[in-house]
Amino acid sequence: MEKNNPIPQIGQAWGADIFPQLSWFKIDKLKQANVMVVGCGALGNEVLKNLVLFGIEHLVIVDFDTIEQSNLTRSIFFDQDDARYNRQKATVVAEKAHKINPELKVLPLYGNICHDIGLGLLRQMDVVVSCVDNRWARYCLNRLCMRANIPWIDGGIDRLEGTARVFIPGKNCYACNLGSEALKDMSYRLSCYSVIKRNEQSGRVPTTPIIASIIGAVEAQEAIKLLHDDKLKNGELTSLCGKMFYYEGQHLTSRIVDFIGYDSECPAHEQWNPIEKTLITTSWEIGDLLKYLSEIFDCRKIEIILRNHCFVDYLTIRKDERKIAAMLPDYAIERFIEEDKTLNHFPLSAFYQHEIKTIDSSFLYKKLTLKQLGFPAWDILHVNTEKGNRYVELADELNYSEFLFQNKKA
């Protein structure tokens, strides 16, 4: 290679030389987009690989799991050392994606989308891609995206079958498409942790690298299309919004079916606006927070609504009415019981939990912080006052925004 002909950067090379063959492709749109991928299993690996190869430069990756030997047969970013040291999936994918494109800014988050990711961060996204494996996680993600007015793409794989769908606020809703059996299944609100453990114990290996590759490619393609919203509006591109792509590999069949459900009365797709930014962080104590909100809103009634979870101050053992202090958000109770040697021989059904769903001046534990109540960093509080509802965004205390394209929502 001649000295005067330097190796081009990845985005420059592909944007200038290859992708313009796609008449609609705009590399600048991808470079300036913020994309979140939830789930780093077989499907998430394929989606992330494709997005990075396409030229996405601002990624948030969310996963609560670590790498095991069984992951290596269907996950391109994981290797033997990752499994040996049980490394976090999100961290490993972030490191290896950055090797593909050194210009990539990637934020790996070790956590559960149902309760560990603040809505303030999520609302900075242009699109969210879901690669989760259970209905409750999809339901929670749908609810968050609807509140933040962000489109999201869902993919699901099982053995040689897979589906892909696109949900856009105001057009279709995941919750509105759930049948009675699915709603019954979600009523148990099984934690993702428990689902994974059950699957491991039963020896299930429900996916293959081939089906993950196919559905992951469709999800990534739909994400790229959503980032070219002008081309969708003029009909040059068509989205899966309102439809479902189904692929069955055993007999090599595929089809697209309508998937439109949108009930105007559904509580899952309410939108939170306007959003008011503050300097509040999760380290604030509840007493100080209530006083501060009362002052800035000039209101006597301040009530923080726990919309994603409730707070459990104690458990009661049904058999003898004995009370056990918990002081945890409800999603942490199952693990609390599992890890307590005096309680783990009881089934979950042996307990009542005392749930607190609103925080106001009568709250007994005013020295607790927002973090202790279960609020993640950069979340948004739903505050009810005598003058109406307010939506208060916490400060970006962990500097997540350093990884994002900055010219985003105020």
What can you tell me about this protein's structure?
- It is a single chain.
- With 410 residues, the chain is of the alpha/beta class.
- Helix content is 31%, strand content 21%.
- The chain has helices spanning 10-18, 27-31, 42-54, 80-84, 89-100, 119-122, 135-148, 180-187, 192-202, 209-226, 229-233, 286-297, 333-339, 370-373, and strands at residues 35-38, 58-63, 105-110, 127-130, 152-158, 161-167, 243-248, 253-258, 275-277, 303-305, 311-317, 323-329, 351-356, 358-359, 380-385, 388-393.
- The strands form 3 sheets. It has an 8-stranded mixed beta sheet with strand order 3-2-1-4-5-6-7-8, with helices on both faces. The protein has a 5-stranded mixed beta sheet with strand order 9-16-15-10-14, with helices on one face.
Structural class, by secondary structure, is: alpha/beta
How are helices and strands ordered from N to C? HHEHEHHEHEHEEHHHHEEEHEEEHEEHEE
Q: How many strand elements?
A: 16
Radius of gyration computed on alpha carbons: 23 Å
Keywords:
single chain, 410 residues, disordered N terminus, alpha/beta
Summarize the structure.
With 410 residues, the protein is an alpha/beta fold. The chain has helices at residues 10-18, 27-31, 42-54, 80-84, 89-100, 119-122, 135-148, 180-187, 192-202, 209-226, 229-233, 286-297, 333-339, 370-373, and strands spanning 35-38, 58-63, 105-110, 127-130, 152-158, 161-167, 243-248, 253-258, 275-277, 303-305, 311-317, 323-329, 351-356, 358-359, 380-385, 388-393.
